[in-house]
C-alpha cells in the first residue's frame, strides 16, 4: 500500500520514495505527497525525478482500480518509463500552485456547508473553481453567501484534522453532510476536518491550516439544477492564482 503523506500534512510539497510497480495505470510508489482524485477533489500533478537525473511529468493522480491501497501517478502521454523501474529511488514533487488552489477551495466549501445547512449531493474541487450541489428547494442569496464567506475568512478560524472511530461516527451520523460521497469504511477509523467553531465533518481532502489562508474566494454563480438541487460555484477573486 502507498503511504499517504498528504493525509497528515497537506503542506508537504515533495518526498523521497521507491517505485513499487509500473503498469498501464501509472507509477506506484511506496509513499507519496500526491493526492489522488477522490471526495470531489481533483488529483495532484507534478514530477517524479530519479537520482540519475531522469524526470517524469505526472499529469494526474488516481487510486489504482485493481490494487486496493495503491496510488497511481499518471505520466504524460508518450512518456519514457525506462528509468522508473520497480526499486528505483525517486523524488516526488507536486505542483505547489495547483495544490494551494485545491487547499483554498476545499476549505472554502466547508465554509459554504456551514452557511447553507442542507445536505450536499454533489461536489467538485479543481484548481480553477469549486462547486457544491445542495439538496434544497429554497433560493440562495449570492451577496449573503459572499458576506458570510468573507466574515469566516477574516475571523481566522483554525483548521485541523483528527481521526475518530467508525463507532463514533455511527453514534453521530449528523456529521456526514454528503449524500453522494460516504466516508470510507473498513480501516477502523474516519478522518474528520474541523474548522474551529464553524464546521466538523468527515473529509479526506487537503485544506489550509487557518481560514485566513483561504483569501478572497467568492460565489461566482448560483444555479437551480433541479427542483431539489441548488448549485453554488466558487472562484478566486484575485487573478492569476490557478496553475499556468
Write the layout of secondary structure elements.
Blueprint: E1 3-4, E2 14-23, E3 26-29, E4 31-32, E5 46-50, E6 55-63, E7 71-75, E8 89-94, H1 96-115, E9 120-125, E10 130-135, H2 142-154, E11 159-165, H3 166-171, E12 189-195, E13 199-202, E14 217-226, E15 229-236
Parallel strand pairs: 1-4
Antiparallel strand pairs: 2-3, 2-8, 3-7, 5-6, 5-8, 6-7, 9-10, 10-15, 11-12, 12-13, 14-15
Query: Total domains, how many?
Result: 2
Query: Given this structure, which CATH class of the largest domain is correct?
Result: Alpha Beta
Mean pLDDT: 93
Number of strands: 15
Supply the number of helical segments.
3
Q: Write the element-wise H/E pattern from the N-terminal end onward.
A: EEEEEEEEHEEHEHEEEE
CATH-defined fold name of the largest domain: Threonyl-tRNA Synthetase, Chain A, domain 2
Low-confidence stretches: none
Largest sheet strand order: 2-3-7-6-5-8
**For the CA atoms, what is the radius of gyration?**
19 Å
Q: Tell me the CATH architecture of the largest domain.
A: 2-Layer Sandwich
Helix content: 10-25%
| Helix vs. strand class | alpha+beta
The oligomeric status of these chains comes to single chain
Strand content: 35-45%
Distance between the termini: 32 Å
Q: Globular, elongated, flat, extended or rod-shaped: what is the shape? A: globular
User: Would you identify the CATH H-level superfamily of the largest domain?
Assistant: Threonyl-trna Synthetase, Chain A, domain 2
Largest sheet: 6 strands, antiparallel, barrel
Amino acid at each position: 500500500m502507498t503511504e499517504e503523506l498528504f493525509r497528515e500534512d497537506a503542506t508537504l510539497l515533495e518526498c523521497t520514495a521507491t517505485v513499487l510497480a509500473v503498469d498501464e495505470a501509472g507509477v506506484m510508489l511506496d509513499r507519496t505527497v500526491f493526492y489522488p482524485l477522490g471526495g470531489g477533489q481533483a488529483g495532484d500533478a507534478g514530477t517524479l525525478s530519479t537520482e540519475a537525473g531522469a524526470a517524469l511529468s505526472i499529469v494526474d493522480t488516481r487510486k489504482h482500480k485493481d490494487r486496493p491501497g495503491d496510488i497511481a501517478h499518471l505520466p504524460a502521454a508518450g512518456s519514457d518509463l525506462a528509468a522508473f523501474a520497480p526499486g528505483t529511488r525517486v523524488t516526488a514533487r507536486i505542483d505547489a500552485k495547483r495544490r494551494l488552489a485545491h487547499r483554498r477551495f476545499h476549505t472554502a466549501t466547508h465554509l459554504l456547508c456551514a452557511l447553507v445547512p442542507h445536505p450536499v449531493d454533489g461536489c467538485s474541487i479543481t484548481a480553477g473553481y469549486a462547486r457544491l450541489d445542495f439538496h434544497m428547494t429554497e433560493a440562495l442569496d449570492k451577496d449573503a453567501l459572499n458576506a458570510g464567506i468573507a466574515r469566516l475568512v477574516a475571523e481566522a478560524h483554525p483548521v485541523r484534522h483528527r481521526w475518530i472511530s467508525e463507532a463514533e461516527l455511527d453514534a453521530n451520523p449528523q456529521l456526514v453532510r454528503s449524500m453522494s460521497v460516504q466516508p470510507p469504511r473498513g480501516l477502523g477509523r474516519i478522518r474528520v476536518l474541523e474548522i474551529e467553531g464553524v464546521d466538523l465533518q468527515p473529509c479526506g481532502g487537503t485544506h489550509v491550516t487557518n481560514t485566513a489562508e483561504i483569501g478572497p474566494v467568492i460565489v461566482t454563480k448560483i444555479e437551480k439544477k433541479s427542483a431539489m438541487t441548488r448549485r453554488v460555484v466558487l472562484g478566486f477573486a484575485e487573478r492569476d492564482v490557478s496553475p499556468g
